[in-house]
Amino acid sequence: MALLPIVVIVFFVHFCFYKIDTSVLIAFCISVVLICIGETLFLSGVDSTIMPMGDLMVGAVNKASKFAVFTMFTIVFGICATIAEPDVTVFSEQVVASGINIPKGLLIFFIGAGVGLFITIGIQRIIRNINIKYIYIVLFAIIFLLCTQVKQEHIAIAFDAGGATTGIVTAPFLLAISSGVTTKFSKDNDNNEVFGMLGLASLGPVIAVLIFFMMFGDRAGEMMETSESVNILVTTLRQSSLAIIPLSIVFYLYDLIFIKLPARRKLELLVGLLLSFGGLFLFLFGIEYGIGKMGTVIGEFLATVSTPVMMIICVCFGFVITFSEPSVIVLSKQVQTATKRNIPAIVVMFSIAISMALAILISALKIVYSINFFYIILIGYLIALILMFIVPEMFTSLAFDSGGVASGPMTSAFILPIMISLATQTSSAVNGFGLIGIVSVSPIIVLQILGLVYRFVLRRKDILEQRHSVSLSYTMDMYSNMEALEDEYNRKYKEKK
User: Fold this and answer.
1) Alpha carbons 497 and 486: distance in angstroms, whole number
2) 230 Cβ neighbours under 8 A, 6+ residues apart
3) Least-confidence region, from 146-155, 423-432, 473-482
4) DSSP 227
5) Taking the domains of the chain in order of start, what are their residue ranges?
6) Which end of the chain has fewer CB atoms surrounding its CB within 10 Å, N or C?
7) pLDDT at residue 188, rounded to an integer
8) CB-based burial, 451-473: b 16+ in 10 Å, e otherwise
9) Are 153 and 430 in contact (CB under 8 A)?
10) What is the DSSP letter of 346?
């Protein structure tokens, strides 16, 4: 069970350090079971539905009268996929629960709009064969310029929104679109062009949310939706419906106009969507029921211990939570395949785990010592941008893709409430945000460092192969001249005799 390490640490804290209320522990255990079942069902639905939908949309482009029509539907479908993303739903809930006056629906719409717009940029980059490094430089220049116009807590929320975007729904869809567009439209048909779409899509919400705060600022609270007194079951059912239904409507409308699938195939996709709906409902219900509460309790506990103990616990949580994120396992296998096993998947996983541990530690220290989030994220991305000019291009795209992948559902649902609770006890709940942004930049740096290691390994192999070739050539020359050397030896021996 992927969540077992987290359960072990929670009970270790309970028995050794801090007595957790029995009702909270029971709710936590029930939530873990529901999340495991829900995530399994949801991922099964994604594999049988979301990925095929993306492939079918790209496959029908030739039938479309204009490529612009396909792009429009892709943008709308991307927005709907983002709305269906569990990470985004959980993150928006945390923002509202922390007391920040932002309408949840409007926040999710801006995040989705950012993803949809940047899907267009990603598609055009592949078609026009534009170097992704220059796109990143321009985008980060815009982002850091916008950061100077908003408050620190708004910057943290914007970067967290970007990290929460590319999860278990959005990532498969974007990879399917990217792969299909690369195959059909890329001039060089380079497989490396497949990477990079996720990285661009995760920057779109950062810019969109920063613009949102520039437009409304603190006046966003004036548009706050009136909260209804509904129970968790009805709320989760509504969230799951709003996530899956728009996604289904957009795809079936595109199918009606362009694809025209047979009735049996439509029914198969519908079953996959129902499976996704059931899994998403159980997943969100589990998070609402007990995971968030446990995160709040752990955060309260961290506020009562010494800084060294807090640092050790944060490092432990950061390290083990990596292995509960299925997307990290997929990413590790991608790196192993891309490097032809020169960098094993286990090395990638442990590297990301270490980076996650350091990211959560930095986030906790930021809260305790009131460190400005802008300086942390600025230094992190400056290192990432410098590294991208000295590592293989494939690793640049892969690294930026990994930024959103590493911060999965458990980071938003469990670790973020810990940080918000810790911030509530020490200063203000708003200071707890920024965790997902820091977690997102850490794998980017780590994977690019692995790219440098990969380059070093290849160079070392080349040197060894050259030496072997020279030695082999010398040996072959010796064997080819053996007969002449033997004749020369016999001649000299006869003369001496």
Assistant:
1) 16
2) none
3) 473-482
4) P
5) 21-496
6) C
7) 57
8) bebbeeeeeeeeeeeeeeeeeee
9) yes
10) H
Is residue 141 over pLDDT 90? yes
Residues 291-312 have a mean pLDDT of 87
* Token pair listed for 144: 């850091």
Beta carbons of 77 and 50 less than 8 angstroms apart: no
DSSP string, 288-348: IIIIHHHHHHHHHHHTTS-HHHHHHHHHHHHHHHGGG-HHHHHHHHHHHHHTTTSS-HHHH
Nearest to 164 by CA among 413, 417, 342, 465: 413
pLDDT digits (tens, 9 = 90+) for 231-288: 778 778 877 887 788 878 878 887 887 778 888 888 888 888 888 889 888 888 888 8
CB 342 within 8 A of CB 458: yes
Helix then strand then coil, in percent of the chain rounded to 5, is 85, 0, 15
* DSSP string computed for 376-440: HHHHHHHHHHHHTTTS-HHHHHHHHHHHHHHS-HHIIIIIHHHHHHHHHHHS-GGGGTTHHHHHH
Using only C-alpha atoms, the chain has a radius of gyration, in whole angstroms, of 26
User: Which tokens go with 122?
Assistant: 């990603």
What residues contact residue 231 under an 8 Å CB cut-off, 6+ apart?
none
CB atoms within 10 A of CB 71: 16
Coil, helix or strand for 390?
coil
pTM above 0.85, yes or no: no
Two tokens at 420? Answer: 């918000």
